[in-house]
């Protein structure tokens, strides 16, 4: 059947109109119909807050509007978070839209467990000193640079890092003096004291830190003195320290002494190098460990250290107590369970891959020393130097052929070849570790050793 020219033009126009309407509809709804053209919409939600909301924006790359005037029950606006909350957007940031996104306003919080204070940057972290018994939550990675003055508090609240990382950009941490347990002490760390009931969890630290001291003190990567709980954390930070005095230092805490209240570090690791130099001319004691320098009433479980730790000095009378996990105990109810160490331990003095010296109050169990070298002094033992007859080691292994170790001491542990420890089943049978939830460990098929499940 032949149609008139007018009819054919009408049919062509109608088909073009329908096709155009299809593309316009797809464009408006955010569907990529052509494979090259798409548009998505950014929406804002007050999430229970008050004040003017920014207008919705449209396009592929948009600038997140500020939250000026937004409040919630007297709280201040802090940031925008999408659902699911896998990214925090600070006003003024660009967002690359690959789908329609709704941003929810988040506020400063009121410090309760259900509505914690928000930590987005170093200024928010410093504000912990204003309410040391409150709950806090870190919402994004951030950087600390320049100088940091130790927060002069005994923290008894909770900081939940939510798996985020705080990076130190060549930071110098300054010491403070505080009255603690009835007398003045000097502390150097992010926070002076994690007190009884204090919790720091789900947080990773990275970067470089330097410390220089004019007096003896406790110093730590996170806290100077720990009486509470630190769990599910990682310290990748490298530390360079100079002191003319004695020191207790660990990447987690300088010590856990004083009130002896059953402090704990669990499900955590340390991997940054630690380099400490004593520059004094008088006799001092250096207590240094990957996790803590000195401890009493502390339990360390399901942790590992792969730090290279070096302690050097110019005064031959200086005493060094150095361990991959801890420096020395205080003969009071300490336990190290299900831990392992790697890296090199170098110092002239008492040194061990797990503990520098044990006074008899530390129980080490189900643990393994995989270190390649232990060198520097005449009192080196593969696991720990023991100065009391009750050894208190149970099911502890030491790498066969570890360079620099001395023999003749039970605390060398049970010999095991490094190759044997690279088999998953060895850990299951030898130290009874498991590698499925709720175990904190998982097997890393690339590294051929256990790592923490949350990593």
Describe the structure.
The protein is mainly beta and 455 residues long. The protein has 2 domains: 67 residues; 336 residues, Pectate Lyase C-like, CATH 2.160.20. It contains 3 helices and 42 strands. It is globular and about 70 Å long.
Task: Give the tags.
455 residues; mainly beta; Pectate Lyase C-like; 17-stranded parallel beta sheet; 3 helices; 8% helix; 49% strand; disordered N terminus
Q: What would you say about this model in short?
A:
The protein is mainly β.
Biggest sheet descriptor: 17 strands, parallel
Number of domains: 2
- Give Rg in angstroms: 28 Å
Residue stretches low in confidence (pLDDT < 50, at least 5 long) are 1-36
CATH topology of the largest domain: Pectate Lyase C-like
Structural class by SSE content:
mainly beta
> What form results from the Cα inertia axes?
globular
Termini gap: 73 Å
Work out the number of β strands. 42
The portion of residues assigned to helices is: under 10%
Write the layout of secondary structure elements.
Layout: H1 5-29, E1 41-45, E2 57-58, E3 61-63, E4 71-72, E5 75-82, E6 94-96, E7 101-107, E8 117-119, H2 122-126, E9 135-138, E10 142-149, E11 151-155, E12 158-174, E13 176-180, E14 183-188, E15 191-194, E16 199-213, E17 217-220, E18 223-226, E19 229-235, E20 238-243, E21 247-250, E22 253-256, E23 263-270, E24 274-278, E25 285-289, E26 292-295, E27 298-305, E28 309-313, E29 319-323, E30 326-329, E31 334-341, E32 344-347, E33 350-352, E34 355-358, E35 362-369, E36 373-375, E37 379-381, E38 384-386, E39 393-399, E40 414-416, H3 424-430, E41 441-444, E42 449-452
Parallel strand pairs: 1-7, 8-9, 9-12, 10-12, 11-15, 12-16, 14-17, 15-18, 16-19, 16-20, 17-21, 18-22, 19-23, 20-24, 21-25, 22-26, 23-27, 24-28, 25-29, 26-30, 27-31, 28-32, 29-33, 30-34, 31-35, 32-36, 33-37, 34-38, 35-39, 39-40
Antiparallel strand pairs: 1-2, 3-6, 4-5, 5-7, 13-14, 41-42
């Amino acid at each position: 059947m032949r149609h008139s020219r007018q009819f054919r033009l009408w049919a062509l126009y109608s088909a073009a109109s329908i096709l155009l309407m299809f593309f316009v509809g797809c464009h408006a709804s955010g569907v990529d119909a052509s494979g090259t053209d798409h548009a998505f919409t950014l929406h804002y939600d007050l999430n229970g807050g008050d004040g003017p909301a920014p207008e919705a924006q449209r396009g592929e790359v948009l600038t997140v509007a500020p939250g000026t005037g937004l409040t919630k029950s007297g709280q201040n606006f802090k940031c925008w978070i999408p659902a699911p909350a896998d990214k925090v957007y600070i006003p003024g940031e660009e967002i690359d839209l690959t789908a329609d996104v709704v941003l929810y306003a988040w506020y400063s919080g009121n410090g309760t467990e259900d509505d914690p204070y928000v930590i987005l940057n170093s200024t928010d972290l410093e504000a912990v000193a204003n309410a040391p018994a409150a709950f806090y939550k870190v919402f994004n990675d951030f950087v600390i640079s320049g100088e940091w003055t130790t927060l002069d508090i005994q923290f008894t609240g909770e900081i939940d890092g939510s798996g985020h990382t705080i990076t130190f950009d060549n930071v110098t941490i300054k010491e403070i003096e505080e009255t603690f347990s009835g007398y003045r002490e000097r502390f150097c760390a992010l926070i002076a004291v994690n007190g009884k009931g204090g919790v720091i969890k789900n947080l990773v630290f990275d970067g470089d830190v330097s410390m220089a001291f004019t007096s003896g003190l406790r110093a730590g990567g996170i806290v100077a003195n720990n009486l509470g709980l630190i769990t599910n954390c990682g310290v990748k930070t490298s530390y360079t320290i100079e002191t003319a005095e004695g020191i207790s230092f660990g990447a987690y805490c300088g010590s856990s002494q004083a009130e002896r209240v059953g402090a704990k570090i669990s499900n955590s690791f340390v991997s940054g190098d630690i380099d400490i130099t004593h520059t004094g001319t008088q006799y001092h004691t250096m207590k240094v460990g990957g996790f803590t320098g000195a401890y009493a009433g502390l339990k360390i479980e399901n942790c590992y250290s792969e730090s290279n730790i070096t302690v050097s000095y110019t005064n031959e009378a200086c005493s060094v107590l150095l361990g991959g996990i801890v420096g020395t105990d205080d003969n009071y109810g300490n336990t190290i369970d299900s831990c392992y160490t790697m890296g090199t331990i170098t110092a002239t003095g008492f040194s061990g891959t797990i503990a520098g010296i044990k006074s008899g109050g530390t129980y080490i169990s189900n643990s393994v020393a995989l270190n390649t070298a232990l060198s520097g002094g005449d009192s080196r033992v593969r696991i720990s130097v023991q100065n009391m007859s009750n050894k208190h080691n149970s099911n502890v292994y030491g790498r066969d052929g570890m360079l620099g170790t001395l023999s003749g001491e039970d605390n060398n542990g049970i010999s095991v070849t490094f190759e044997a420890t690279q088999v998953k089943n060895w850990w299951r049978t030898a130290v009874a570790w498991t590698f499925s939830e709720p175990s904190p460990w998982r097997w890393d098929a690339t590294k051929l050793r256990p790592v923490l499940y949350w990593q």
